[in-house]
Amino acid sequence: MLKLSILLLCAASMGAIAAPPQNQPDVAVRPKVALVLSGGGARGGAHIGVLKALEELRVPVDIVVGTSAGAIVGAAYASGMPLADIEREMQSLSTASLFHDVDRRSLSVARKTDDEGSYVGPEFGIDANGISLPMGAVSGVALEAVLRRLTARQASENFDRLPIPFRAIATDAASGEMVVLAQGNLALAVRASMAIPAVLTPVEIDGRLLVDGGLSRNLPVDVARALGADIIIAVNIGTPLLKREEIKSVLSMSNQMTRMLTASNVRHSLAELS
């Protein structure tokens, strides 16, 4: 009986120690922060400035979602590339990169001479069905080389397993629906996200022909919400509509149509922000 009494007393004492005080406050849980980076062509470098400011202020980033130019910077950052390296690589990504499929440094002198008389434009061919037309002015080979360098740190095809979970936004050319890319090759996903119609050849992923994500969701706030974001830092660098005197060619007219579609869905996304 004495031993039993001692055991019961020890058990009661241990229970009292283990039981938390009734008035102990709950441990605060940090809200999940998502960074949403829009498309905006040459303005994409502005995203790097935003990331620098966030790092200086020690603002944590738990999710990155990007469209077009935002996908370029977002993918590189989410994969773990330092901002200084991203900035250096982005400096080589110019408009010229979009209109040349081969890095001239890799060409022979004879090929460089031949190219001096060439012009920017799509190549045509003839097959069994007649004249074959390309779906873009250039295929984007040189551009993809830059994107591979920017995403060289990718270690997993699952974008959730990157240092920061990431999503790239593209548009299905057949249905016009938004496509959220969450796995695969980062460089290819980014190229799909920025495949400007009539300029860059669309990218085929999982049987879908993908073009610029800005057409369906240039500021994908809803995608970040679906990933569980509590706080969203949305960076809109969308380009304004061209003025009447700036619309002078088929290319500029196509560009204007793209900007109109982009501006429309951006207004919808901004309305979703609290």
TrEMBL record:
Motif DGA/G at which residues?
212-214
Q: Which SUPFAM superfamilies match?
A: FabD/lysophospholipase-like (SSF52151)
A single Gene Ontology molecular function, please?
A: hydrolase activity
Provide the PNPLA domain boundaries: 35-225
**Signal peptide limits:** 1-18
Organism phylogeny: Bacteria, Pseudomonadati, Pseudomonadota, Betaproteobacteria, Burkholderiales
Q: Where is this motif: GXGXXG?
A: 39-44
Q: Where is this motif: GXSXG?
A: 66-70
- Active-site residues, as the UniProt record annotates them: S68, D212
Q: Name one GO biological process term.
A: lipid catabolic process
This protein's name = PNPLA domain-containing protein
Q: Which InterPro entries match?
A: Acyl_Trfase/lysoPLipase (IPR016035), NTE (IPR050301), PNPLA_dom (IPR002641)
Annotated source species: Undibacterium terreum
Pfam families attached to this UniProt entry: Patatin (PF01734)
Q: Which UniProt keywords apply?
A: Hydrolase, Lipid degradation, Lipid metabolism, Signal
